[in-house]
Specification:
The protein has one domain: 3-Layer(aba) Sandwich (Rossmann fold), CATH 3.40.50.720. Helix content is about 30%, strand content about 20%. The strands form two sheets. An eight-stranded mixed sheet has the order 3-2-1-4-5-6-10-8, with helices on one face. Helix 1 packs across helix 6 and helix 3 runs parallel beside helix 5. The mean pLDDT is about 90.
Length: about 220
């Protein structure tokens, strides 16, 4: 399978590139600066592109089977007040996919991007995390809305909502999946490598087609 990976130089993106190559996929890593990827592999193609421009993305999407996005906003001071990265890249990415005739899209957002009074999230998420990172979570929600809109009806998406991400190695725990804003009974933190594994696994099943799913690692027993 030929996979385009966006956000390939981020911590989760690096794991995704590595796992995709280990699985035998052809990988096109889209970056702003090629020098940030020093890895060499026969199936790895590194390309520079502007994520805010569909015309910049179309040539790199053409001929691929899926686009996977690990685009993320850094938690800098300015991002406490205004974030538009997810929504402002979402529209050109989707448009470029449509023009390049690529339908499969997997992306990362977060737990509790939206409040559901009938199914409120964990206290820490709703009353501490969401108020602190409101700008980022609201823009993630705008990206989700773009994918759920009629204009994206031809895109076969999977929105992956993880909790707190860590750089810890995988412990081999079961990945819990729920079609909602969060997962009950998990660890409330997930290694990035496990998120990357789940994203790749979503390509080989129709179970998560056109769905937004929350994921988390199951608690270890014993």
């Amino acid at each position: 399978m030929k996979i385009v990976i966006l956000g390939a130089t981020g911590d989760t993106g690096k794991e995704l590139v590595r796992l995709a190559l280990d699985s035998g996929h052809q990988v096109v890593a889209i970056v702003r600066n090629k020098s940030k990827i020093t890895q060499k592999h026969a199936n790895l193609q590194v390309e520079e592109a502007n994520l805010f421009s569909e015309e910049s993305l179309i040539p790199h999407f053409t001929g691929s089977d899926a686009v996977l996005s690990c685009i993320g906003s850094y938690l800098g001071f300015a991002n406490f007040f205004k974030v538009t990265l997810y929504s402002e890249t979402g529209r050109p990415i989707i448009s470029a996919m449509q023009k390049a005739c690529v339908q499969r899209f997997v992306c990362i957002t977060s737990w509790c991007t939206k409040y559901n009074r009938n199914d409120p999230g964990p206290f820490v998420m709703e009353w501490i995390v969401f108020p602190l990172f409101r700008a980022i979570l609201k823009d993630m929600a705008r990206l989700e809305d773009i994918l759920l809109s009629e204009d994206s009806s031809d895109i076969n998406f999977t929105i992956v909502r993880p909790p707190q991400l860590t750089n810890s190695p995988s412990k081999g725990q079961e990945i819990l999946v729920e079609e909602r804003q969060f997962v009950k009974g998990g660890c409330r933190s997930t290694p990035r490598v496990d998120v990357a594994k789940f994203m790749l696994s979503a390509l080989s099943t129709d179970k998560y087609d056109r769905k937004a799913v929350a994921i988390d690692c199951a608690k270890l027993r014993g």
